[in-house]
Write a structure and sequence with these properties.
Elements lengths: L5 E5 L7 H9 L7 E2 L7 H10 L2 H4 L3 E5 L4 H13 L8 E4 L1 H4 L26
Parallel strand pairs: 1-2, 1-3, 3-4
Helix pairs in contact: 2-4
Length: about 130
């Protein structure tokens, strides 16, 4: 029997996004276990459990997805997962679209309006 394609989904949040799960299923992953409330310190153990249990041939059918909304934390989690792997136990790593986007900067305390509530005017005065 062939080994199934398994995508392990880690998120620091309370639950994995249904959108991300649906995308994984539509992409052909056969098993999609998700792990919620994953801490940065927990990534190494989960990664090693996912890869060493599959054997050198099974890792070709294994992936790890990092979800969540914090791009910096996702980058740290990806780095921690990558550091937990040793050849030939190497799998594909990916982060969700929302986790890859840098945090948007707040336009300031007053938004597009100045401190007195007036819109800022361009060089043309208009």
């Amino acid at each position: 029997m062939e080994r199934p394609y398994i995508l392990h989904m880690f998120t620091p949040g309370k639950q994995m996004s249904p959108f991300d799960i649906n995308m994984a299923a539509d992409a052909g992953w056969q098993m999609i276990p998700s792990y919620a409330d994953v801490t940065l310190d927990g990534v190494t153990g989960l990664t090693q459990d996912a890869i060493f249990s599959r054997g050198p041939k099974g890792v070709a059918r294994t992936g790890i997805f990092i979800g969540g909304r914090d791009a910096l934390l996702a980058a740290d989690m990806l780095q921690r997962a990558q550091g937990a792997m040793v050849k030939p136990f190497v799998v594909s790593l990916m982060a969700g679209r929302r986790a890859r986007q840098p945090a948007r900067r707040h336009p300031g305390r007053h938004g597009a309006r100045g401190a007195r509530g007036r819109r800022h005017r361009g060089a043309g005065g208009g």
